[in-house]
Structures are given as C-alpha cells and as structure tokens.
C-alpha cells in the first residue's frame, strides 16, 4: 500500500520525513516544483491499521511532499474584473472563479502525478481553519486524477517524534466544516473588499488629485482596526488636562523614606484642599491608628497563546506582532517550538510536562532552574488553566532545547521557554504591610511588600514585584512628618495605542483570528492609513491624514444599527457566523447570503452619503473645515428615517450621460435664480437627466462647485415621487434630502460659469465677504497645532495651488469688527447680452450691475500689489530690529502666481504715486501680458506708452523700424540707452554714425547702403571696457520675429563707442581706416585677426567693433 502525505510547507515535509523514516532508506527526489521535493521511504504501521477499504499489513510505502500554502486563487470573470466594466454593486452577485494560481501549477501537477499511483492521501497541513481549507484544496486536486483515493488527516501540534508518530498511526477525518468556513470568509472578503474599494477609490480620486495613483483599499477587518487607532488618537489629541491638588506626607524613619498617600487621593477644588491643608499644618502631629500585615502572592503567568505572545512580545521584546509570529513560525518549522497559532491557554491532563522541562537542563541560563523543578520536592506545579480551548493545539511551548540562536530567534525562543518554565513553577510569596495614620482628622496610608519566596520570579525576569518594605511602626505611635506639603498635579493624557494594545482590542472585539491579527495591523501600516511613531523604545500608532479622513467620514454617516464600516460590530458578527459554520450550526451558503445582505445595505447607505466622506477627506488632506449645515437641514435630519430608500439614492452604479451646454441651459431655464428655487411637484412635467439606467428624477437646483477652478456646475439629482421626504416650512423649497445625493459634475461654457457666480452672490449671506474672484468666500477653521488653532477665517473657494486662485484671506473675528467689504473684481470681457445672461431674472441682472459698479468704485487709497490686487497686511514676529512692524505683500497664496511686491506700512506712499501706480496697472491689464512701457517713448511720434510699431501716427522717414533701433546709435560707453530718441515733433534727433549727418539713423543711411550693401542682422557684442554695447539685442530679435512679414527690416548695431559720428575704425584685414574688415574689398589676410587689438581693451580677445561674433574672427573662444 502506498500513502501520499502532503504537508503545508516544504520544510515541514522534510522534518516529517526525517522523523518517520528515522534516517533509514530515505530517498530525496525532485518534484515538478523546484521547492517541493518528494521524500520516499518505508514505514511500519501498527498491526490491524486500516484506511477505508485499504488495510496496512505492517510495512507501507510513503511519499511525503508539500504545497506552498494555498493552491487556489479566486477572482471575478473578465466581464467583472476591470474596474469600470461594471458597477461595484454587481460584485455582490457576480460569479467567482476558482483556479490554480500561476505559481502553483507545477505544485498541483506534482500532486496529481503522485496521486495516480497512491492508495491513501494523508493531509499533514497545519491544524487550524486555514490548514483544513488547504487540505481540502489538495484533496480536490488529487481527486481530479483518482476519484476513489482514500482521504485521512494527520493531527499534530509540534514537530517532535512522539507527536508525529502518533499522528501517522492515528489519522482522523478532514474537517470539511472548517474548510467551508474559510471558503465563506474568502468569498465575503473578495466581494465586500472589491465593491467598497472600487466605490471609494473611484469617488475620492475624482475629487482629490493627490489620490489619483493610490488605491483606497477597504478590508472588513482592516477598517475596524483603523477605527481603533483613530478613536484613541482623538481621545489623546482632544484631551484637556484638568488640574487637581492633594496633600503630600513623607516621613523618614531609619534609612527609609516612607510616603503616605491621602485617602481622598486628590480634589479638583483648590480652595477646599487649601482649607484642609491649613488645618493639618496647624496641627501636624501624626498618629498611627492601624498596622496590618498579611501574606500575599503574585500569580505566575498563564499558558501562552498566540495573542498573548504578540502582546507580550510587543511590550517586552519591542517587536512587531507580525515579526514575532514569523520568527515563532520559523522556530516551529525547525522543531524548537510547538505550533505558534493557537487560542488555547490550558493543557490537557495527559500533557507530558517533565519530559519537556528535562530538555532544558543543559541550558546555561535557566538549566539550573529546570533541574530544581524536577529534583526538588514540591517545586513543580502544574500550570493554571485559562478559559480558552480551541481543541486543536496546546499552548505555545518549547519542544526541544536550542543552542546557537541569535537575534530575534533567540529573543522569542528565550521568552517562550522562560514563560513555560515559570508556568510550571509556583506563585511568588510575599508579605504586605499597611500603615494607616491620621493628621488633623485626615487619613493617610502607606503600603509595602516584602518578597519572601521568589519561585517563578527567579526564571522570569520580565516581571518585578515587591520592594525594600516598610520600617517598623507601632499602633498609637506619634510623630511629626518630615514633609507635609500641598502639591498640584493634573490628569494624565491617554496614551496612543501600541501594537500590543491594538492586538488586545482586536482580540477582545473579535476582529480577526489569532493567526490573522498581526497581518491586519501590518496591512493598515502598509496602506499608509496608520504610521508608526517612536518615543524612545516604544512604538505608538498614529493615523495618517488619509486614515483620519476615511474614518471620520464614515463615522459621520448614521448607519442603521450602528453598523459602521469602522466599528467592530459588522466583522464580529461575521466571525461569529464563521464559528457557527465550523460547529455545524449553519451552512456556508446561509452564512454568505446573510452577511452579503447586511454589507449590501451598508454599501448602499455609504455610497449614498459619500459626500460626508469627501468633506472629511478635504478637511484632513487639505485642511479645509467643512461648513456647518443650516438650521433647516438639522430640522429635516431629525424628521427623516435612518435607513435611506433604494430609489432615493443615486450611486456610483448609475451611468449618467454628460449633457451638453444646450441641454443644461434648457434645464436652467426653469430654475429661479433669485435665491430660492421651486422643486417640481409630483404632477409637474419636469425635465429629467438622461441616464443609462432610466430617469432618476427632476433637476431641482444647481450650485457652483467651490473647489473647481473652472467654476463647474454640480447638478443634484432628486426624484419627484409622492413619497418625498417632507421639508420644513422654513426651509428653502428645493432643500436637499437628509441623505446626501451623489452629484454628476458637468463642464459648461463660460456663460454658465458666469451665471453660477451670480447665483452664488444671490445665495451668499449678507455678511459673507466676496473674494477677489468675485465669488463668495468660504469659511474655514484652523485645525493644525498653532497659536491660531480653532480660529475661523475666510478664503477663496478655489483649491489651494490653483493658478486662478486670488489668494483672498481674512480672519473672521477681524472681519466682524471691520465690516465686510467687496474686494477687487475683474469685469468679464464682453457685454452683458442675451447670450451670457440667459436664464437670469431681471432682479438678478440688476444685482449683477450693482455688484460690478461697486467693484469699480474701490477706494483709491488702498495699497495694491503689482498684480493689481489689494495687498495683504502682515506683521513681523521674529526677533530683530523690525519686530512688530507691519508690511504689505501680494495676497496670493500660490508661490507660482505671487508677485514680489513689498512695502512697509509705516513708510506710507504718496497719494499721487498710488494713483499713478493704479493707472499703470490698469494700462497693463488692458494691454495684456506685454512689456512694461512706462517712461519709454515712441521714436516715431515721441509720445510715451507705445512702440513705433504700434504708433497710430504716419511713419516718418527715419522711423521705419522698431523703436529699439533708436537706442543703438547713442548707446556707447557712458551713454544713455534712451538719449537719442525722437522728440515730440516726430523728427529724429540722433546722429548717423555712417555719414555723420543728422536726421536719420545709420540703418537708413543711403551712403552706408551704397557702400556696405545689405545690412546684417544685429548681434550681441560688448563695447569698450567690456560693457554691453547692444543691451536691446533680444528686443530687436523679438521685434524682427513679430514683424516677419516686413522682409528686409533688420537693424545694424555696429555703432561706435560714445556715439561717434563717423566710421573712424581701422580695418584689421588691410589696415586702412574708414571701414570695417567685414566691408573690406581686399583679399582676406591670414592672421589678420591677431594683427590688431581692440582699442577699448575688450576681454577674451573679442573685438569691440563691428562684425558678428564668431569663432576665428576676433574671438578666442
């Protein structure tokens, strides 16, 4: 008979083979997978052992192989796998496919190869729910090639010889109920996790650019775990210490200082404590009224479970729970520890303690204590039992002595071993002494413990107990205390959660199992919902802004039955249902159907109220405080039911079509924009938005999205059924429902944005200031830790970082004292005609005009920055000579758009200068993004404010080119760049440096044109002394490019230093005066460039006179 044994891991398969074969005749041959090898040997079964219809007659052939965890994977089909291929709710019912994962195909093939020639399949996976499910996968795969193969299960708790042999000779049946429970959990996690992950990821990515490349994943266990961290963080951050006062008494007797604690502990009323203290101070003599002594004990630790190992390891060993389990798993595979995933904290009556204790005799650290337990009469004491027993594995304990361990392996093994030895010892015994005394009628108490017998404390240094004890006091003894003082203290802020604390909370609330708790904690850290914060050697867990936004958003939703996504109730019910499946009280199908029904209802409510999550995400990701709801909304909320109707909610599942501008305006035609809007009644023939799923309701109202740079319009969809939620009489007619509805965002044209802005002005409160964009400012609250925390302020409604954001900012308390004002508003281009005022009433148009008129009549004495906006007033707070001074800067928040304006407030500005500055800014605004022309004149007409190319006057003979050309003739060394411009008469006052005549430039000189031919393009050279000769070469190039249609309009910039009137330069080719080498008619002479040097002493071998600057011609570059 041949028996195929399948372990869960390759290392366990090897250990089992070595134990069962005893090293005799063990063959090791490769399998199809490089890690999963096949171990072959013969094994002797006890007489009469049978496996179904097969009977073992002594020796049998055994093949031990393994898998690598789960064989199968589960996923949706292609029509559901892509995120946008279906609505998230479809995943609650979509078919699920189970298939062998790609990396396990060779493992599965190896199982089928071996199963074909085997009679019995013996499962050796770990003895927990996951192990049973992996075993079920192995059975199904082997039965594909041999349906009648007998299936048995080897049950063991440690990889030690006696347990392995006992498991092989006494197999049991596979626990199919436990396997079903795991399959149910896998299906639920896949459906629920995928639906919620897609819903919240797609929704939040549409509102937050910073989340575009991040998957906001949801896990039924991870979110309640995250909720624990957030709840504790809120308690920690919002805690306000409260002062208290108490009376401190200390008396020094012999060498010991004894502190007596006040029986009242402390009081929160200082005056009352002061009154009592004054009474004690006036009569300070203390009288001992009672001295009691009694024997006490400190209990030894209970047997070790997985949860306790994670808690103690995190607190004492400073290791993460997952890391502790990984190390313990490795030690288990090496045969040093028992199975580390167990909920049992009690040993069976037949457990062999003394054999395991005897294996520790040889250890240099605790071997002596182990020997005392076995040799000393009465030293050994059976461990005290706890309350849990999973009937699968015993508590965690050492199975063999380990030498040569280092690092975390040594730390974990030592803790487990010392705890096991301590649990086999006796409790520590001590004597507790209590002394009571009175001072002026007030009772004070001192307590001390003296350890008499240490017992388990000798081997378990992780706990301490006792102290030096108290000196001798007698009843009736009187003395004056050494110290009698009144002290002040304050209540202590709750600490943040450590990983050990979180493990305790999860275990107590039924979140996860002993085997998965550590994985859930690691997941929320990996997904950046939680961050680890070190304080010394202690690691605390702090929620990230992403984690805070998610939890606070879902907590704002009033889920039915308090079954919030971030609370433990939902998952606890699922875990309890899984236990019922394991115990046979319900079936897998029933459990899955019931859980999906609950989660579907929660999904519907969460998706319908996702705006609350968006508001909280904006609050924590961007620091934007959500606005307070109006009074009528609170009244409406109190009159609505907790659970929304399915037909009232529009979710992510509805494929809405984006309507065009005409359709949008046809809808807006029926909307009153005077501040209130009328919702269509049940009988009204209202227009409906086109939807892939049918008509969902009438267009009730439109509002601007304040976070959109394009002034998008959000159209809220409501229905017009008779069963609408009643609206209070004092509420607007088109009040939104209690359950926030999903909105579809449209991008209409410019006219829509204009209409939207006007409607915002209509609906804004009279005291709400307008930002510089012309929109109603939004109110926010400072939530960051600073001197202004909790302070309210007004700001531009556009997103931070938006280039169109005006940067408006104002403290609410300052606005209340100074009064709201209308900031500068840029009038939109174009007239207010029928095309861009469509859908607006006459009253709205009148109000628009009044707003525009008010914005144009700004006070002229306001300080404005270079952007043309009202400058922001700031104060210097840093230490220095300017501390306390006020100054003005650009009000924009974005560094990309902020100008460099700066002015001290106390220095002031001249009224005339301020008016001139405003005029210049208006000119710049009218001309668009062009160069500043202040102080520069046209050389054609002589007027300032424009170039000759834009001059409205007829061109003069000497002004055919760009105005920049006027500077070239007179901009030599020490010259002014504007000294040669034409005067008011329009005539050219400069001197031609070609012929020496006046009234024209060299570029228009007929003598130069005749002798030199076509002029060359300008170049950038340096004049005498290295100064720039052509400071406007870039402008010339720009002008030539802008006027490229005027072919031949190029400017020669080869002027002499100081504006010479003649061409007196020397040609370095022929040596003659009167022309440059570029105009020389003689043949080119080699070395001519080096024969003459610059008269002006130009640097780096460059000539200071004419000719383009090129290599080999007057340049050493």
From TrEMBL:
<dbReference type="InterPro" id="IPR001878">
    <property type="entry name" value="Znf_CCHC"/>
</dbReference>
<dbReference type="Pfam" id="PF01131">
    <property type="entry name" value="Topoisom_bac"/>
</dbReference>
<dbReference type="Pfam" id="PF06839">
    <property type="entry name" value="Zn_ribbon_GRF"/>
</dbReference>
<dbReference type="InterPro" id="IPR034144">
    <property type="entry name" value="TOPRIM_TopoIII"/>
</dbReference>
<feature type="region of interest" description="Disordered">
    <location>
        <begin position="625"/>
        <end position="646"/>
    </location>
</feature>
<dbReference type="GO" id="GO:0006281">
    <property type="term" value="P:DNA repair"/>
</dbReference>
<feature type="domain" description="Toprim">
    <location>
        <begin position="2"/>
        <end position="157"/>
    </location>
</feature>
<feature type="domain" description="CCHC-type">
    <location>
        <begin position="938"/>
        <end position="953"/>
    </location>
</feature>
<dbReference type="GO" id="GO:0003917">
    <property type="term" value="F:DNA topoisomerase type I (single strand cut, ATP-independent) activity"/>
</dbReference>
<dbReference type="GO" id="GO:0006397">
    <property type="term" value="P:mRNA processing"/>
</dbReference>
<dbReference type="GO" id="GO:0006265">
    <property type="term" value="P:DNA topological change"/>
</dbReference>
<dbReference type="InterPro" id="IPR023405">
    <property type="entry name" value="Topo_IA_core_domain"/>
</dbReference>
<feature type="region of interest" description="Disordered">
    <location>
        <begin position="671"/>
        <end position="708"/>
    </location>
</feature>
<protein>
    <recommendedName>
        <fullName>DNA topoisomerase</fullName>
        <ecNumber>5.6.2.1</ecNumber>
    </recommendedName>
</protein>
<feature type="compositionally biased region" description="Low complexity">
    <location>
        <begin position="726"/>
        <end position="736"/>
    </location>
</feature>
<feature type="region of interest" description="Disordered">
    <location>
        <begin position="723"/>
        <end position="751"/>
    </location>
</feature>
<feature type="domain" description="GRF-type">
    <location>
        <begin position="771"/>
        <end position="815"/>
    </location>
</feature>
<feature type="compositionally biased region" description="Low complexity">
    <location>
        <begin position="913"/>
        <end position="923"/>
    </location>
</feature>
<feature type="domain" description="CCHC-type">
    <location>
        <begin position="992"/>
        <end position="1005"/>
    </location>
</feature>
<dbReference type="InterPro" id="IPR013497">
    <property type="entry name" value="Topo_IA_cen"/>
</dbReference>
<keyword id="KW-0479">Metal-binding</keyword>
<feature type="compositionally biased region" description="Basic and acidic residues">
    <location>
        <begin position="379"/>
        <end position="393"/>
    </location>
</feature>
<keyword id="KW-0862">Zinc</keyword>
<feature type="compositionally biased region" description="Polar residues">
    <location>
        <begin position="740"/>
        <end position="751"/>
    </location>
</feature>
<dbReference type="InterPro" id="IPR000380">
    <property type="entry name" value="Topo_IA"/>
</dbReference>
<dbReference type="Pfam" id="PF00098">
    <property type="entry name" value="zf-CCHC"/>
</dbReference>
<dbReference type="InterPro" id="IPR013824">
    <property type="entry name" value="Topo_IA_cen_sub1"/>
</dbReference>
<feature type="compositionally biased region" description="Basic residues">
    <location>
        <begin position="1097"/>
        <end position="1117"/>
    </location>
</feature>
<keyword id="KW-0863">Zinc-finger</keyword>
<feature type="region of interest" description="Disordered">
    <location>
        <begin position="1008"/>
        <end position="1117"/>
    </location>
</feature>
<dbReference type="GO" id="GO:0005634">
    <property type="term" value="C:nucleus"/>
</dbReference>
<dbReference type="InterPro" id="IPR006171">
    <property type="entry name" value="TOPRIM_dom"/>
</dbReference>
<feature type="domain" description="GRF-type">
    <location>
        <begin position="865"/>
        <end position="908"/>
    </location>
</feature>
<dbReference type="InterPro" id="IPR003602">
    <property type="entry name" value="Topo_IA_DNA-bd_dom"/>
</dbReference>
<dbReference type="InterPro" id="IPR013826">
    <property type="entry name" value="Topo_IA_cen_sub3"/>
</dbReference>
<dbReference type="GO" id="GO:0008270">
    <property type="term" value="F:zinc ion binding"/>
</dbReference>
<feature type="domain" description="CCHC-type">
    <location>
        <begin position="1067"/>
        <end position="1082"/>
    </location>
</feature>
<dbReference type="InterPro" id="IPR013825">
    <property type="entry name" value="Topo_IA_cen_sub2"/>
</dbReference>
<dbReference type="GO" id="GO:0031422">
    <property type="term" value="C:RecQ family helicase-topoisomerase III complex"/>
</dbReference>
<keyword id="KW-0799">Topoisomerase</keyword>
<comment type="similarity">
    <text>Belongs to the type IA topoisomerase family.</text>
</comment>
<dbReference type="InterPro" id="IPR036875">
    <property type="entry name" value="Znf_CCHC_sf"/>
</dbReference>
């Amino acid at each position: 008979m041949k028996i195929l044994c399948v372990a869960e891991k390759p290392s366990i398969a090897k250990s089992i083979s070595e134990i069962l074969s005893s090293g005799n005749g063990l063959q090791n041959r490769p399998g199809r997978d490089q890690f999963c090898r096949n171990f072959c040997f013969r094994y002797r079964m006890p007489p009469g052992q049978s496996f179904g219809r097969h009977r073992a007659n002594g020796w049998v052939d055994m093949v031990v192989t393994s898998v690598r965890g789960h064989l199968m994977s589960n996923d949706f089909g292609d029509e559901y796998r892509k995120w946008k291929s279906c609505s998230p709710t479809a995943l609650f019912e979509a078919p699920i496919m189970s298939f062998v994962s790609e990396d396990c195909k060779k493992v599965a093939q190896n199982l089928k190869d071996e199963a074909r020639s085997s009679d019995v399949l013996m499962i050796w996976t770990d003895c927990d729910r996951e192990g049973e499910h992996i075993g079920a996968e192995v059975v199904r795969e082997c039965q594909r090639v041999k349906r009648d193969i007998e299936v048995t299960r080897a049950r063991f708790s440690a990889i030690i010889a006696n347990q392995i042999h006992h498991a092989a000779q006494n197999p049991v049946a596979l626990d199919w109920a436990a396997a079903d429970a795991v399959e149910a959990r896998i299906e639920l996690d896949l459906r629920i996790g995928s639906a919620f992950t897609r819903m919240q990821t797609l929704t939040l990515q549409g509102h937050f650019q910073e989340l575009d490349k991040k998957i906001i994943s949801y896990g039924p266990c991870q979110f309640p775990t995250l909720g624990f961290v957030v709840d504790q963080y809120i308690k920690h951050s919002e805690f306000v210490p409260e002062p208290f006062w108490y009376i401190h008494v200390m008396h020094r007797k012999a060498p010991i200082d004894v502190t007596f604690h006040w029986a009242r502990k402390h009081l929160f009323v200082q005056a009352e404590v002061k009154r009592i203290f004054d009474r004690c101070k006036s009569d300070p003599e203390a009288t001992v009224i009672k001295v009691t002594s009694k024997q006490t004990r400190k209990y030894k630790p209970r047997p070790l479970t997985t949860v306790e190992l994670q808690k103690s390891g995190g607190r004492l060993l400073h290791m993460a729970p997952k890391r502790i389990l990984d190390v313990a798993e490795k030690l288990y595979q090496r045969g040093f520890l028992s199975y580390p995933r167990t909920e049992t904290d009690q040993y069976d009556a037949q457990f062999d303690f003394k054999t395991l204790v005897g294996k520790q005799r040889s250890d240099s650290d605790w071997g002596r204590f182990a020997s005392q337990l076995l040799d000393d009469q009465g030293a050994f004491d059976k461990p005290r039992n706890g309350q849990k027993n999973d009937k699968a594995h015993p508590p965690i304990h050492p199975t063999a002595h380990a030498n040569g361990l280092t690092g975390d392996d040594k730390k974990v093994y030592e803790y487990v071993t010392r705890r096991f030895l301590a649990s086999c010892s006796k409790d520590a015994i001590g004597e507790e002494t209590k002394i009571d005394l009175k001072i002026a009628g007030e009772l004070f108490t001192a307590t001390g413990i003296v350890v008499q017998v240490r017992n388990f404390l000798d081997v378990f240094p992780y706990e301490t107990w006792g102290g030096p004890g108290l000196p001798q006091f007698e009843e009736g003894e009187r003395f004056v205390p050494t110290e009698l003082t009144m002290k002040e203290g304050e209540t202590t802020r709750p600490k943040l959660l450590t990983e050990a604390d979180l493990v305790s909370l999860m275990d107590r609330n039924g979140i996860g199992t002993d085997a998965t708790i550590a994985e859930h904690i690691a997941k929320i850290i990996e997904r950046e919902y939680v961050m680890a914060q070190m304080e010394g050697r202690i690691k605390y867990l702090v929620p990230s802004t992403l984690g805070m936004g998610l939890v606070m958003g879902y907590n704002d939703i009033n889920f039915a039955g308090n079954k919030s996504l971030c609370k433990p109730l939902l998952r606890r019910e699922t875990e309890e249902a899984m236990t019922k499946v394991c115990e046979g009280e319900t079936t897998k199908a029933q459990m899955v159907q019931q859980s999906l029904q609950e989660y579907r209802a929660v999904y519907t409510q969460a998706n319908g109220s996702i705006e609350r999550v968006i508001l909280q995400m904006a609050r924590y990701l961007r620091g934007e405080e959500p606005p307070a709801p109006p009074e009528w909304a609170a009244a409406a909320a109190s009159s609505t039911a907790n659970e929304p109707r399915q037909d009232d909610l529009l979710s992510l599942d509805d494929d809405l079509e984006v309507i065009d501008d005409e359709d949008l305006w046809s809808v807006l035609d029926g909307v009153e924009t005077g501040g209130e809007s009328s919702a269509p009644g049940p009988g009204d023939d209202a227009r409906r938005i086109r939807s892939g799923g049918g008509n969902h309701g009438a267009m009730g109202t439109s509002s601007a999205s304040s976070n959109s740079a394009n002034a998008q319009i959000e159209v809220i969809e409501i229905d017009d059924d008779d069963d609408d939620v009643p609206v209070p009489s004092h509420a607007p007619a088109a009040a939104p429902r209690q359950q926030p509805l999903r909105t579809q965002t449209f991008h209409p044209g410019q006219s829509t944005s204009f209409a939207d802005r006007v409607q915002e002005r209509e609906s804004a409160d009279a005291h709400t200031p307008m930002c510089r964009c012309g929109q109603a400012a939004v109110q926010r609250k400072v939530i960051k830790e600073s001197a202004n925390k909790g302070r309210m302020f007004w700001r531009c409604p556009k997103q931070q970082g938006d280039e169109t954001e005006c940067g408006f900012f104002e403290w609410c308390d300052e606005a209340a004292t100074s009064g709201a004002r209308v900031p500068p508003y840029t009038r939109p281009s174009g007239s207010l005609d029928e095309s861009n005022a469509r859908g607006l009433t006459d009253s709205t148009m009148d109000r628009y005009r009044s707003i525009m008129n008010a914005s144009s009549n700004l006070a002229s004495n306001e300080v404005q920055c270079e952007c043309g906006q009202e400058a922001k007033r700031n104060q210097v707070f840093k230490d220095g000579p300017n501390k306390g001074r006020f100054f003005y800067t650009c009000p924009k928040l974005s560094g990309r758009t902020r100008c460099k304006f700066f002015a001290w407030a106390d220095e002031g500005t001249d009224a005339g200068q301020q008016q001139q500055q405003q005029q210049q800014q208006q000119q710049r605004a009218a001309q668009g993004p062009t160069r500043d022309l202040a102080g520069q004149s046209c050389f054609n007409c002589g007027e300032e404010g424009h170039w000759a190319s834009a001059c409205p006057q007829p061109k003069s003979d000497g002004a055919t080119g760009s105005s920049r050309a006027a500077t070239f003739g007179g901009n030599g060394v020490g010259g002014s760049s504007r000294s040669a411009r034409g005067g008011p008469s329009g005539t050219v006052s400069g001197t031609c440096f070609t012929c020496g005549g006046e009234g024209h430039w060299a570029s228009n000189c007929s003598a130069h044109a005749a002798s030199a031919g076509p002029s060359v393009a300008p170049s950038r050279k340096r004049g005498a002394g290295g100064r720039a000769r052509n400071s406007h070469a870039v402008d010339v190039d720009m002008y030539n490019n802008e006027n490229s249609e005027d072919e031949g309009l190029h400017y020669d910039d080869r002027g002499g230093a100081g504006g010479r009137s003649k061409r007196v330069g020397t040609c370095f080719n022929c040596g003659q005066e009167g022309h440059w080498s570029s105009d020389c008619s003689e043949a080119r002479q080699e070395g001519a460039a080096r024969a003459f040097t610059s008269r002006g002493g130009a640097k780096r071998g460059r000539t200071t006179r004419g000719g383009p600057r090129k290599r080999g011609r007057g340049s050493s570059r």
